[in-house]
Amino acid sequence: MNKEPITINGLQKLKKELEDLKNVQRPKVVEAIAEARSHGDLKENAEYHAAKEQQALIESRVIAINDLIARANVIDVTKIENDGKIIFGSTVKLQDLNTEKQINYKLVGQDEADIKKNLIFFRSPIGKALIGKNKGEMIVVNTPSGEKNFEILNVEYI
User: What fold is seen in the domain 4-74?
Assistant: First the structure.
């Protein structure tokens, strides 16, 4: 069983989602299946088939979350001494040398990643380029839109 790094926040979100799936979504779908069954012939019953499909999606997500929680290696970067090195969970301030824009990224696990919130998967191209680097270093990242050059301005363990 491979341990999967996750932040404290990421683990809390997973537990909250699991609780919602078990206590809210699952009972709703069971109710929808019972309602659809009461309409008679199940072969031609679109509501029944849609509810059963929804039930399968919920159950597979419950299994996936339970697996993630079981394999979770919770990393609290606030408890680690900041020596300026980029590690899982650290927040990095970068200067895009092509556009001069500054951007902050937090390196997180796959389930936590959300580019809209600047949470990037630590195994993504940018994540891989950042891990192990230090404040002040330059990095080159090959992205789908071409080569990008960054300077690491700051590293925080927050």
Answer: Helix Hairpins (1.10.287)
Nearest CA to 90 out of 118, 61, 53 is that of 118
Q: Per-domain residue ranges for the chain?
A: 4-74, 77-156
- Which DSSP state fits 21? I
Mean of the pLDDT values across residues 81-98? 94
Q: What is the dihedral of CA 125, 96, 7, 82, to 10 degrees?
A: 120
Domains 4-74 and 77-156 belong to one CATH topology: no
Torsion of CA 98, 102, 108, 110, to 10 degrees: -50
User: The pTM is what?
Assistant: 0.81
Residue 42 has pLDDT above 80, yes or no: no
Pairing state of beta strands 138-143 and 91-96?
unpaired
**144 has a pLDDT exceeding 90:** no
CATH 3.50.50.60 fits 77-156, yes or no: no
Q: What is the mean pLDDT of residues 135-147?
A: 90
Q: CA-CA distance, 109 to 112, in Å (whole number)?
A: 5
Query: Identity (one letter) of the amino acid at 65?
Result: I
Q: What is the mean pLDDT of the chain?
A: 93
98, amino acid identity: N
Rounded distance, CA 99 to CA 145, Å?
A: 14
